[in-house]
Amino acid sequence: MAFAPGIDREDKESSVTVEMLYRELSSGGGSGDIESPTDLLGDVSDALFPGEAVELDESVVKGNLDAVLLALVATQDHNTHGKGLMETLATAFGAEFSPGTVYPSLHDLEEDGCLETRELVRTKEYAVDDADLSRERVAAAARQHLLLGAFLQEVAGDL
């Protein structure tokens, strides 16, 4: 029974399985070799949906903005200020957000203890403050999407 193109319940060497994704989430994440968000998103899309051009809806990114921002701050060693993060959102996800959308999320993540700020001359740069808390929030969002995606794909196959 297929959950998505290239994702089977059977453990095939050439495809990514739901179980593989779940094990990856349960083990705490990836390889530790973090690449650019754009490259990483492209690699994941290619692995999950070979030969298909799959893009995220801006509304999906906006609905998960806190987790996406945490992931971006964790994977970038520069441009972790608001404007740089908005540029990365546009480049990697095709999502054009206003400062009125991004900055309140960054401030909330700072208040929650996930992010800390470093004051620069004319801006603030963000960094992960509590890695465990941030990791759990990102992993929880990933689990939610994996479950919902598997459910929707299963139903789509029956329609």
Automatic annotation (TrEMBL):
One Pfam family this sequence matches: PadR
Descriptive protein name? PadR family transcriptional regulator
Per the database entry, which stretches of residues form a coiled coil?
none
**Organism for this UniProt entry:** Salinirubellus salinus
Q: Which InterPro entries match?
A: Tscrpt_reg_PadR_N, WH-like_DNA-bd_sf, WH_DNA-bd_sf
Which residues belong to any copy of the Transcription regulator PadR N-terminal domain? 70-128
